[in-house]
Amino acid sequence: MRFLGIQPYELIWQQMLEFTLNRTDSTQDELWVLEHEPVFTLGQAGKQEHILNAHDIPVVKSDRGGQVTYHGPGQLIVYLLIDVRRNKLGIRQLVDLIENSIISVLAEYGIVGLTRPRAPGVYVNEEKIAALGLRIKQGCSYHGLSFNIDMDLTPFTYINPCGYAGMKTTQLIDHVENPNTNLFKHAQDKLLHVLQASLI
User: Fold this and answer.
1) Which residue, 46, 77, 94, 107, is the most exposed by fewest CB within 10 angstroms?
2) Kind of pairing, strands 68-71 and 39-42?
3) For 24-34, how does the pLDDT look when each residue is reduced to its tens digit (9 = 90+)?
């Protein structure tokens, strides 16, 4: 587990790629836990037209799966550097595992999280609270999940999130009565506990 603080997207992406390409059969799996400086990322299938107006926020074309999303402070990022072959995990199983982990954390706050067919991620009242984007190379995963906890959601209105026009986004703090001042760390710890129990 690596706790990396707030980091630029491209730097961490390159470090993930290097870690993955240099893995051996004995390399331990890792979770990288961080927040990103404000950035829009376009996945491999990402279409430029889904960025309606980037304003002054950088746009990065990434090699992860999925369409366009936004990352910024107050959003928890967990990158999953997992040898899926060694763990006998299919990509669908890994996606399900991540989604179910987020749903279980939401349930601990009394929030019902749901998935959607053909639209990976987790939703609360039809609004997206968590997004997924993965890449498998040499039997190992990198990239991972973003979980909106306590952030400025405005930049999501500058795009069609995940390629869906009009899709609304939400965040944990808006669904928790009397949120703890350490809500971000509280939710982070809960999610990491569930992911570690499932993966590592």
Assistant:
1) 107
2) antiparallel
3) 999 999 999 99
What pTM was computed for the model?
0.95
Place of tokens 């992406």: 13
**Which tokens go with 191?**
């999610």
| pLDDT-derived band at 187, boundaries 50, 70, 90 | very high
Tokens at 181, concatenated: 């001042």
Domain 2-199 CATH assignment equals 3.20.20.210: no
Phi then psi for 12, rounded to 5 degrees? -70, -40
Residue pointed to by tokens 């053909």: 118
In contact, 156 and 50? CB cutoff 8 Å = no
- Catalytic annotation, residues: 162
What are 103's two structure tokens? Answer: 């749903």
The radius of gyration of the chain from alpha carbons, rounded to an integer in Å, stands at 16
| Alpha-carbon span 70 to 59, nearest angstrom | 9
Decide: helix, strand or coil at residue 149. coil
Model confidence band, residue 200 (pLDDT cutoffs 50, 70, 90): low
Q: Dig out the tokens for 180 from the structure.
A: 């703890």
Q: Taking a C-beta distance cutoff of 8 angstroms, is the pair 87, 132 a contact? A: no
**Residue 197 CB neighbours (<10 A):** 9
186 contact partners, CB below 8 Å, separation of at least 6:
180
CA torsion 184→187→193→194, rounded to 10°?
Answer: -140
